[in-house]
Write a structure and sequence with these properties.
- The complex is a heterodimer of chains A (107) and B (123).
- By secondary structure, chain A is an all-beta fold.
- In chain A, 0% of the residues lie in helices and 50% in strands.
- Chain A contains no helices and eleven strands.
- Chain B is 0% helix and 59% strand.
- In chain B, β4 (33-39) and β5 (46-54) form a beta hairpin.
- Classes of the chains: A mainly beta (107), B mainly beta (123).
């Protein structure tokens, strides 16, 4: 299976900060990489697909980049509603696998 | 707008079979892949499997870590898809999600997701 590793596991940030989350694949996955946001007690919601394609309805302060093994999710000007857990997911090779998650907490 | 409504027991005894149903409204189940994902309390997401049913073939993928205990199926006439997980143990206690898979040619993602069902394995 392709292993997905996210770092940091958690971070503290303030409203207005720029936040970057990294996801690393154990082998090249080209750009078959998605990002999800999950709030407590809720199902995950897709933010970005194909490493950098913003899903409909997702604010433009979210952006994704990367290819092969290294990917980043950036949140520009963090908003109160962005405090959540973020997961990356690869769909290059079955079984799909997720990163362990990054918790974005309020500083 | 497509909606996924999950149903099934919240408590299953060890060694028994977990059975969950996902009822889809607002879209045809025969047009997409559908997946199951689970999440133990306080932990990350684990892919269980995905399935597509075409009139002439079925395509499915399972997470090998489940050691063939998982079986997915679809009922296109009722727009429902199902998960069965046999020989459950406490390690199978988790919130289980169903989800539609969008995209194509590998650029796939899950959207939307069901509301989640907490399944506890306990005697």
């Amino acid at each position: 299976d392709i292993q997905m590793t996210q770092f940091p596991s958690s971070l503290s940030a303030s409203v207005g900060d720029r936040v970057t989350i990294t996801c690393r694949a154990s082998q090249s996955i080209m750009t078959y990489l998605n990002w999800y946001q999950q709030k407590p007690g809720r199902a995950p919601r897709v933010l970005i697909s194909a490493a950098s394609t913003l899903q409909g309805g997702v604010p433009s302060r979210f952006s994704g980049s990367g290819s092969e093994t290294d990917f980043t999710l950036t949140i520009n000007s963090l908003q109160p509603e962005d405090f959540a857990v973020y997961y990356c997911q690869q769909t290059y090779r079955a079984p799909w696998t997720f990163g362990q998650g990054t918790t974005v907490e309020i500083k | 707008q497509v909606q996924l409504q999950q149903s099934g027991p919240g408590l299953v005894k060890p060694s028994e079979t977990l059975s969950l149903t996902c009822t889809v409204s607002g879209d045809s189940i025969g047009d997409y892949y559908w997946g199951w994902i689970r999440q133990p309390a306080g932990k990350g997401l684990e892919f269980i499997g995905r399935m597509y049913v075409h009139p002439s073939y079925v395509d499915s993928h399972y997470n090998p870590s489940l050691k063939s205990r998982a079986t997915m199926s679809l009922d296109t006439s009722r727009n429902q898809f199902f998960l069965k997980l046999t020989s459950v143990t406490a390690a199978d206690t988790a919130v289980y999600y169903c989800a539609r898979e969008l995209g194509g040619a590998g650029f796939n993602w899950f959207d939307p997701w069901g509301q989640g069902t907490l399944v506890t394995v306990s005697s």
